[in-house]
Amino acid sequence: MSMIHIILEDGQEVSVPKGTTLEQILEDLSSQETKVDNEPKSPALLAVVNGKLRELWAPLNADANVRFLTLEHQDGYRTYIRTLNFLFLYSAEEVLGKEAEVRIKQAISGGTYCEISRGERTGVTEEETQALLEAMRRHVAEDLPIRKKPYPIDEAMDLFEARGMWDRSQVFKYRRFSTINLYSLGGMIDYFYGYMLPSTGMLKYFDLTQYREGVIIQLPERKWPHKVRPFVPSEKLFDVFRRSTEWSEIMGVETIGALNDSIADGSIHELIEISEALHAGHIAAIAREIFARRDQIRMVLIAGPSSSGKTTFAKKLSIQLRAEGLRPRMISVDDYFVNRENTPLDENGEKDYESLYAIDIEAFNSDLKALMAGETVTLPRYNFVTGLREYHEKPMQMGPDDILVIEGIHCLNEALTAQITRSEKYKIYISALTLINVDDHNRIPTTDGRLLRRMVRDHQYRGASAARTISMWPQVRAGEERNIFPFQEEADVMFNSAHIYELAVIKQYAEPLLFSIRRDEPEYAEARRLIKFLDYCLGVSSEIVPSTSIIREFIGGYNGE
Questions:
Q1: pTM of the complete model beyond 0.70
Q2: CA separation (Å) from 524 to 53, 262, 412, 463?
Q3: What integer pLDDT is reported at residue 250 of this predicted model?
Q4: Residue 181 class from Cβ within 10 Å (0-12 exposed, 13-18 middle, 19+ buried)?
Q5: Is the pLDDT of residue 449 over 90?
Q6: Minimum mean pLDDT among 37-41, 147-151, 313-317, 503-507: which range?
Q7: Do residues 194 and 530 make contact, with C-beta atoms less than 8 angstroms apart?
Q8: pLDDT at residue 495 greater than cutoff 60
Q9: In contact, 90 and 100? CB cutoff 8 Å
Q10: 329: which residues sit within 8 A by CB, 6+ positions away?
Q11: pLDDT class for 447, splitting at 50, 70, 90?
């Protein structure tokens, strides 16, 4: 019997027969029985084999370095969610019937929102939701196998067209490969972008909550996989997603396949014009609301996660405010950083620049109150080289038509401006929320769009490599979870800065950066995932992107005031 040599992440070495699957290796190691703080250890869900992601049913036919991934790793978590979605779809067909149309829409409130319709009827009852949950749990107990099989593209298109799933056929039409992998569960065959678990028995932690026109699939915590996140409705954020869906319907582009059709038939120019017009219209509406309340509102506070386009949005809003007759005065919260030596430390003893207390809150509020009282104030400018606040700017004094426009990650947190009356503040949350999905069962994570934006921008303006951006992204996301997302429902209005066409533009800039990441770099697996994702979308030249578009903040060439 031919043997191969396996080296695990902890340095342990094992020899196994050639053809042994990763799942069999896990069983032999029996590491899942380890207890941590009296709780079960998170099971392995995926593996990295010689730098490449592999599903647990994959056989090993040569010596390899193997690292197993759990829920705590982003790829393990994605695999769990993706397989859970498949289980939900399988159970929905069983409980609601084949005529039920299920769309996996977006991530919200720590779960996944799925929209359900049957003819003219939308939504499900509490009783139907409970029946769905019971069916899912029964299939977990049955430990049903999930299988992967390659199909010729034409055969896969025929299969889905026969089932009326035209969104799949539309996507496959633009695939460059002759075959495509489909997954089966029981008698259901479907397509999924990404990897899957080998069986339903690994999906032990989830819940369902009836919500709006569908259900929320509640997910486990990444760090505590045995605990399911409670569902806390985010009504304002959900309404922004609803508006985005309406925009997609207006433009007739709800999937990547439809976007590709627009590029292929030449209507992409009109699509861009409509998308930009919808943005402009929403910004103008926000400016009109602020103007209507000008006797009360003294400042506009803008916050959002990384790469949401806050800077360009603030400029475009300021132009609209001027058109209404107001005089916006810009202030950046970052200019009120404490001197670097006084920056608070995080749990690892590192300087935490994203902490609220990295800001001199007392000085910030003092200056705001003085300005609003009509006093002349010299504002600081933070020197990021020396780590000190400096005062070289021309003094500011507010007139009767002046309004402060303030940007910073903590702007939705009432603690930042605690000395200012809430009624004098107008808060805006901005983020790039995905407008389209791959198809009805494969959503595009909002975070992927923002990561690609940041990668392109940081390479162009900050000299950062794609590997550097990818390596820092988990830390950035952790900061957003602490400092931005808990306060998003405090906003008076939310603005979606994503454009329906932007992936086709960003693709041209991001792909070369991703291909530059070597196989021996830790970020290689994530780079390959993003490359495969971008391959779904046709590219389009940035020359047709208006010079005032928010997208220009990332690809360059912005020509707004």
A1: yes
A2: 10, 32, 36, 19
A3: 85
A4: middle
A5: yes
A6: 37-41
A7: no
A8: yes
A9: no
A10: 396, 398, 402, 403, 404, 405
A11: very high
Q: In whole angstroms, what is the distance from residue 245 CA to residue 106 CA?
A: 11
Q: Which CATH class is domain 76-218?
A: alpha beta
Question: Which residues on neighbouring strands pair with residue 274, listed in sequence order?
Answer: none
What's the pLDDT score for residue 346?
85
Q: Read off the DSSP letter of residue 169.
A: H
Distance CA 143, CA 133 (A): 16
| Residue 551 neighbours by CB distance under 10 Å | 27
Nearest to 133 by CA among 214, 58, 217, 65: 217
CB 91 within 8 A of CB 139: yes
Question: Averaged over 365-380, what is the pLDDT?
Answer: 95
Question: How many CA atoms within 13 Å lie on the side-chain side of 324?
Answer: 24
Which of left, alpha, beta for 160 (phi over 0: left; psi -120 to 50: alpha)? alpha
CATH class assigned to 3-70: alpha beta
| Dihedral over Cα of 391, 396, 397, 402: its sign | negative
> pLDDT band at 35, cuts 50/70/90?
very low
Closest CA to 528 of 477, 441, 467: 467
Residue-wise pLDDT for 323-368, tens only, equals 999 999 999 999 999 999 999 998 888 888 889 999 999 999 999 9
Q: Report residue 64 as tokens.
A: 């390899």
Sheet holding 46-49, edge to edge: 13-17, 3-8, 64-69, 46-49, 52-54
The answer on pLDDT for 110 being more than 90 is no
Torsional class of 50: left (φ above 0), alpha (ψ -120 to 50), beta (otherwise): left
DSSP state, residue 390 = E
Fold of 235-555: Rossmann fold (3.40.50)
Q: Which amino acid is at 226?
A: H
User: How far lies 9's CA from each of 50, 114, 141, in Å?
Assistant: 11, 37, 31
What tokens appear for 60 in the block? 């090993």
Q: Which residue has the tokens 């770099």?
A: 521
| pLDDT on residue 30 | 65
In this structure, what token pair is assigned to residue 268? 């992409």
Give residue limits of the domains in the chain: 3-70, 76-218, 235-555
Token couple for 199: 């069986």
Torsion angle (degrees, nearest 10) of CA 281, 271, 244, 354: -80
Note the pLDDT tens digit of each residue in 60-107: 999 999 999 999 999 999 999 999 999 999 999 999 999 999 999 999
Q: What sign results for the dihedral spanned by CA atoms 522, 108, 449, 334?
A: negative
